[in-house]
Amino acid sequence: MTEMVFGTTPARVGDPILPRWWRTVDKWALACILGLYAIGLLLGLAASVPLAERNGLNAFYYVTRQAVFGGLALAVMLVISMMSPVQLRRLGVLLFLGAFLTVLALPFIGTDFGKGATRWLSLGFASVQPSEFLKPGFIALCAWFMASAQAVGGPPGRLYSFFVAAAVIVLLALQPDFGQASLILFAWLVMYFIAGAPVTLIAGTIALAGFGGMFAYANSEHFARRINGFLSAEVDPRTQIGYATNAIQEGGFFGVGVGEGTVKWSLPDAHTDFIIAVAAEEYGFVMVVMIIALYCAIVVRSLWRLLGERDPFARIAGTGLACAFGAQALINMGVAVRLLPAKGMTLPFVSYGGSSVIASGITLGMLLALTRTRPQNLLADVMGRPGR
């Protein structure tokens, strides 16, 4: 408890890995992550039972799978959080290459599960959404490029990162998956800003993205339908947004009671994209505030610890990971309350789904690794060489 209040101490050379990890990791962020995992299981007990009954399965089938996925994600997160920045760069490159090639092959080997977008790879016993794993790999790779550009005589890493970002965004938009494409663009802009890009260039990129959105609206029925539904003055009560909006209103301050909610019987995606509506209806505004507070704590704690980081890669990658994680949570909850168009994006570490939960574990593991307390190498910082 003393370390949680007064901070951690730098690692001592020669320490065993576990004591060194425990002394240097952000324990408050770790506690918040475990809190999100527990809330995900609690909401899964409420949201997934109707789906199991509709599919003729055991009532707790999906909750059990969520616990297994979550346990695996926590294990992956802890292992990755013990890595050094150099190891994270290597992991990020491998993860990006694997996920990018898989996304590239989705038009030939993927499936849409009747949702109008080919985003999944069916393995028979489970399905994988490669774009979920693409995000942390993309952030690590682009942060490496941008950090290398700050070294004396370094390569044009910012330009390389732009080409990578453009390729990924176009590839995701063709699925179509405009939600993930927007999240990738946001993460890249944040990292580019941290790396020292001029504001005019960032503004130009945002303007270009706006023109891309207008082009997509004019040429993609999938995109136009979601935008029109968002802009419509009336909400069809028989749509997922209509059910979610009504559930949030019914929940009030303290909710209708555990197990007493009805929206989970109407929403086909109550256990994934709209799980916040289940939380609001059964547990009320109090639970929603608690969930928002946990996400804010993870993001703010991470950004605060990164303020003193002198390794350019750690600073850029950590900021990108924290902002992407927080933005995904914001988008998911914004869709549920109709502040944003429907995106088909999960609530990280809370929604059901193997790909989403494990990818969130990878993201948070990288974030915990990059925000660990490390001795700062002032000479390497001055010379533009990332510290290890």
What does this structure look like?
- By secondary structure, the protein is an all-alpha fold.
- 68% of the residues lie in helices and 1% in strands.
- It has 16 helices and two strands.
- Strands 1-2 form a two-stranded antiparallel ribbon.
- β1 (121-122) and β2 (127-128) form a beta hairpin.
- α6 (85-109) crosses α7 (130-148).
- The longest helix is centred in the C-terminal third of the chain and has 32 residues, at 275-306.
- The two termini are 28 Å apart.
- The model is unreliable at 1-8 and 378-388 (pLDDT under 50).
Brief summary:
With 388 residues, this protein is mainly alpha-helical.
Distance between the termini: 28 Å
Biggest pleated sheet: 2 strands, antiparallel
Decide which structural class fits the backbone: mainly alpha
The ordered H/E elements are HHHHHHEEHHHHHHHHHH
Mean pLDDT: 83
Oligomeric assembly: single chain
Shape annotation: globular
Q: In what range is the share of β-strand residues?
A: under 5%
